[in-house]
Amino acid sequence: QVQLVQSGGGLVQPGGSLRLSCAASGFTFRTYPMRWYRQAPGKERELVAYIDMTGANTDYADSVKGRFTISRDNAKNALYLQMNSLKPEDTAVYYCNVNRGPVIGTFWGQGTQVTVSS
If 68 and its partner were Cys, which of 34, 64, 87, 103 is the partner (CB 3.0–4.6 Å)? Predict the structure, then answer.
């Protein structure tokens, strides 16, 4: 079955960096775009970053452009989110995501807490 297992995250000071990873299994990873979402306390889940199947095309929420980088390694079935110049407002639970269409459905990682605080 589809599994998205996340790692990384934690507590970091403002201006610091973190890298999130998402190990995928149970589907043909290289044939699906992937996404990172986040959800802050009391707020709706929001899309943070998108990457296409090959990694050639990416897109970001305006709030993270220039600071976050999404990437993937199709040989390792892995998705990454490099987060630099972190701000307190980046504090949230981060989720990796794959949408396999209306019939198979959408799948989520278990979530990883990122806390930016001094």
Answer: 64
CA 50/CA 35 separation, integer angstroms: 4
In degrees, rounded to 5, the angle at the alpha carbon of residue 24 between the alpha carbons of residues 115 and 31 is 120
Q: How is residue 93 annotated by DSSP?
A: E
Q: Cβ(26)–Cβ(1) under 8 Å?
A: yes
- Would you state the pLDDT for residue 28? 97
Helices (H), 1-118: 101-104
- Structure token pair of residue 61: 């929420």
Q: In whole angstroms, what separates CA 102 from the centre of its chain? A: 21
Tell which phi-psi region holds residue 37, choosing left (phi > 0), alpha (psi between -120 and 50) or beta: beta
CA dihedral 50, 103, 26, 8 (to 10 degrees): 30
Q: What is the pLDDT of residue 57?
A: 98
